[in-house]
Design brief:
The complex is a heterodimer of chains A (412) and B (447).
Chain A lengths: L1 H11 L9 H11 L18 H27 L5 H34 L6 H11 L7 H14 L14 H12 L1 H4 L16 H6 L7 H5 L4 H13 L8 H8 L4 H6 L11 H13 L5 H21 L12 H6 L3 H8 L10 H21 L7 H32 L1
Helix pairs in contact in A: 3-4, 3-5, 3-14, 4-5, 4-6, 5-7, 6-7, 7-19, 14-17, 15-18, 18-19
Chain B lengths: L1 E4 L16 E3 L5 E4 L9 E3 L6 E2 L4 E5 L6 E3 L4 E8 L5 E8 L18 H11 L6 E3 L3 E2 L8 E5 L10 H5 L4 H13 L3 E7 L5 H4 L5 E6 L7 H8 L8 E3 L2 H13 L5 E7 L7 E6 L4 H4 L9 E5 L6 E3 L11 E6 L51 H4 L7 H9 L3 H6 L11 H6 L6 H15 L1
Parallel strand pairs in B: 1-14, 2-17, 12-13, 12-15, 13-14, 16-20
Antiparallel strand pairs in B: 3-9, 4-6, 5-8, 6-7, 8-9, 10-11, 10-15, 16-17, 18-19, 18-20
Helix pairs in contact in B: 3-6
Classes of the chains: A mainly alpha (412), B alpha/beta (447).
């Protein structure tokens, strides 16, 4: 194997015919074998960690959520089948999405590496897997290709590639889908792979307005999730108002907290199981690839903001206001976004204090968008993208404080 | 005594640490002086090939500071002066004669000396260059007076000599040197010693302000100590001297001759013997390693593995270096390295299983362990820099050549050696200490 690669090398280096495509050779070569490059100056020894290892660890951290997601795609289609049968069904839907995402993203990554004459960056290992995990299983493959291209080129490469992007490229891809093809990524039909059957995501259930006056029109509106909701509304009436509205709507629809936590609910491929995501989070925290401050800040911000909204929810007709923190944690893309997307070291804040603020900002914003914004029940994508945009500003203010403190040290 | 506790940092658990045995190296026949060892000088020769010199005869001086002379570490004949590109002086070779003679500088008690006398003797003897200044790590400017002088008696770099062991009970030269340094500044002479030291020479040192320090490398670096004791403000500067050079200063004044020897540490997994060695100043690496065997392809480093310079058998040990490290070159390629569990990978992160079973003596090679990538701020730099400095932003301001920001973020307090661990720990394999060096050079040239 080694000899084979060495034989190939001459075609890519010096006067070789394929010299232009050295980036491809380099990528394959270093994928197979660790590099033989030695340090040129002090420090003469270096840590064993490199970006390849770090990115592979993120991929490993994503695996529990991905595997559960594959199973869940089948489970949402037919809950009565065996686990392995469900998993195989999921595999059939998810693998093509992953293949398209990696192929298209990899193409752009290599193209830019060749044009810019640098080595292919491992950042795409993660982006290419994140994109399939944050789209519905029914997404047409061409949309995955377009969104991946948009995410990689506009979200990352035009800024100079991994390390220079201001937004998380996978989220840019999802935002692109969300605004360009809302029909394919929102509503109720997209979350299950069975034709004609619609299931509302738990978030949509919780957010649905109990506007009793419009029951009839809504029931005939042809918007399936509204029909579903209004059917369930009839059931709710009999139940004593022990729970706040949003939570009651969830529980009535069969989305108990434990169901949501374990992930047996419709949603994007990778986002439904908070448990699987937490396993990944643990690995990221142990290896310190994700910064704990961002996760802690995001958790704190979400809890504080949802409690505040719980208090002001009396007398309001907005059921989302009354959703309690533990439900926000397990609903929608919150956990997935906080663990895998908000913690992207490049697009998040880069000072320790800034990371706290950035996390809190996301936590507060996600609850606000979910509860107060009538258009999008899912707030995580926008919360993180907004926080990405504000991260440099957060860092700037932290930096100014740092400089002031330094100046004070000098006075003494 | 004020104590400074350093938390951030890391002591490399690297194999080949020198045992605590001091041996004397066999007398060499040849010594070298390499002007490139001194950064920031413009050497002008004072001797020609074939001339005979004594110990202490000036060989060249610095055109930028004509008072600073560099003298011969041995007596004999100059057999060769080697020039590089643009007639840069690379090395001056001195063939030692069997009976070496020395220039007399006059033995003098320190109490009667004026600061002017001290400076003159140090400059004439060629010992002045052992005093360096921060920022910029240049030879101290004799025209100016520093706000303080720092001496670190607790070096923490890999294979660095244990000063307590080195000094032993012989305090005379060291204390004499401290007394002389105290006369060179109206400011303080700060001696930083290990916590709870048993060494009398350190704990009972006079004429100095004592500080003790504990914690992992780079706690022993003088830059970290300055940062925590008396930070450098823009426009200020501090002098610093190594403990052995303080002793050399003391001995110069008590004996009247240029001291010839120093003790160095020889270590690294490529060597058969790891020990403390008493050598002649200016001794060649091949003579230092005479009784040692090097296994395999190895890198010779004058200095420690984090901050030292690559050197060769025919070079002399660096003027300031007290360590000779020899470690294997790491050209081995491993199959699918990114998915190996990594029981044997040395890392400060928790990304490998080696974390569960740490070894006390790991063989570290010169392999870069990965490709160079754009800066991805995982926080590795911050975790090993015990300073009130934000390395990510400082480095970015240097790369942007933004002098205003560099100053605000504290570049004057920084030295490449303090950032060596950041470069070691960097996931993207960025040359962090080199970038700091470039930043300092840029500021020096522009300002």
């Amino acid at each position: 194997m080694r000899k084979f690669m060495q034989k190939l090398e001459r075609h890519f280096t010096g006067d070789g015919k394929l010299q232009k495509y050295y980036a491809i050779y380099e990528m394959v070569d270093h994928f197979l074998y660790t590099g033989d490059e030695v340090t040129r100056r002090g420090p003469h020894v270096r840590d064993g960690i490199d970006l390849k290892r770090a990115m592979v660890l993120v991929v490993i951290a994503l695996l529990p959520a991905l595997l559960f997601g594959m199973f869940n795609v089948g489970y949402q289609q037919d809950a009565t089948r065996s686990v392995s049968a469900n998993f195989l069904v999921g595999l059939r839907y998810v693998i093509p999405i992953i293949v398209v995402s990696y192929a298209v993203g990899g193409f752009w990554e290599i193209l830019f590496a060749i044009v810019r004459k640098h080595e292919v960056n491992e950042g795409f290992l993660v982006t290419g897997l994140l994109i399939p995990m944050i789209v519905p299983p029914t997404i047409p493959l061409w949309m995955v290709a377009v969104a991946t291209s948009f995410g990689v080129v506009i979200g990352k490469e035009i800024f100079g590639g991994t390390g220079f992007n201001i937004f998380n490229p996978a989220l840019v891809a999802r935002a692109f889908l969300f605004f360009a093809y809302p029909g394919a990524i929102s509503g109720d039909k997209v979350w299950t792979v069975v034709d004609g059957v619609s299931k509302a995501t738990p978030l949509a259930v919780a957010a649905a307005k109990p506007a009793a006056a419009s029951v009839t029109t809504a029931a005939n509106s042809g918007i399936p999730f509204l029909d579903f909701f209004f059917q369930s509304l009839g059931l709710i009436k009999g139940i004593a108002a022990m729970f706040p509205d949003g939570v009651r709507q969830l529980v009535t629809a069969g989305y108990s907290w434990s169901n949501l936590f374990l992930g047996f609910v419709p949603g994007s491929i990778g986002e439904t199981s908070t448990l699987a995501i937490l396993i990944g989070a643990l690995l990221l925290l142990i290896t310190k690839i994700a910064n704990w401050r961002i996760m802690a800040g995001g958790l704190a911000g979400m809890i504080i903001m949802s409690l505040v909204l719980n208090i002001v929810s009396f007398g309001s007709t907005n059921p989302m206001l009354s959703v309690t923190p533990q439900y926000h944690l397990v609903l929608g893309g919150y956990a997935f976004g906080l663990v895998f997307m908000a913690t992207d070291p490049v697009s998040s804040a880069q000072t320790d204090r800034g990371r706290w603020l950035y996390g809190i900002f996301i936590g507060v914003l996600v609850v606000l968008i979910r509860c107060v914004n009538p258009a999008f029940p899912e707030g995580m994508m926008l919360a993180i993208l907004l926080a990405n945009a504000f991260a440099p500003l957060i860092d700037y203010s932290v930096l100014q404080r740092h400089i002031k403190r330094r100046q004070k040290r000098y006075v003494q | 005594m004020k104590h400074i506790r350093i938390k951030k940092g890391h002591d490399l658990r690297i194999a080949g640490r020198p045992e605590k045995i001091i041996k004397k190296a066999a007398a060499p026949r040849q010594l070298k002086v390499e002007p490139p060892n001194f950064s920031g000088i413009k050497p002008k020769l004072l001797v020609k090939e074939g001339e005979s010199v004594k110990i202490g005869t000036p060989l060249f001086y610095d055109k930028l500071h004509p008072g600073i002379k560099f003298t011969s570490p041995g007596g004999g004949v100059i057999t060769q002066i080697k020039f590089g590109e643009r007639r840069r002086i690379e090395e001056i070779v001195i063939e030692l004669s069997s009976a070496e003679t020395a220039v007399e500088f006059g033995a003098q008690g320190s109490s009667a000396l004026s600061p002017g006398d001290i400076k003159t003797t140090l400059l004439e003897s060629g010992l002045w260059p052992v005093i360096r200044q921060r920022p910029f790590s240049r030879i101290a400017d004799p025209e100016k007076e520093p706000k303080a002088i720092f001496i670190s008696a607790r070096p923490t770099a890999p294979f660095a000599p244990d000063i307590e062991f080195l000094l032993g009970e012989n305090c005379e030269g060291f204390q004499a040197g401290l007394n002389i340094l105290a006369k060179l500044t109206a400011g303080k002479v700060n001696l930083v010693i290990p916590e709870n030291t048993a060494a009398r020479c350190l704990a009972e040192a006079e004429n100095v302000d004592l500080y003790s320090i504990s914690g992992p490398h780079p706690a022993g670096n003088v830059g970290i100590q300055i940062h925590h004791i008396d930070p450098i403000r823009p426009g200020e500067f501090i002098w610093y001297v190594s403990v052995q050079d303080v002793m050399a200063i003391g001995n110069l004044f008590s004996k009247g001759q240029l001291p010839l020897e120093k003790v160095i540490c020889v270590g690294g997994s490529s060597l058969s013997k790891h020990l403390y060695l008493k050598i002649r100043r200016g001794m060649l690496v091949k003579d230092i390693l005479k009784d040692n065997t090097i296994s395999g392809e190895a890198r010779l480093i004058s200095g420690d593995v984090l901050t030292g310079r690559k050197t060769g058998l025919e070079n002399c040990l660096g003027f300031y270096d007290e360590i000779l490290s020899v470690i294997p070159e790491g050209r081995e390629r491993r199959l699918l390295g990114w998915m190996r569990p990594g029981w044997d990978v040395y890392s400060l992160t928790n990304a490998f299983f080696s974390r569960l079973r740490p070894r006390s003596d790991s063989i570290l090679t010169t392999n870069r362990n990965g490709g160079v990538r754009a800066i991805v701020p995982f926080g590795n730099w911050e975790s090993v820099l015990p300073m009130e400095i934000l390395p990510t932003y400082l480095i970015k301001s240097i790369l942007a050549r933004d002098i205003d920001d560099m100053e605000k973020l504290g570049i004057y307090e920084c030295d490449p050696e303090d950032f060596a661990l950041c470069a070691f720990a960097c996931t993207s394999k960025q040359e962090v200490s080199e970038i700091v060096k470039e930043g300092l050079e840029f500021i020096e040239a522009e300002g």
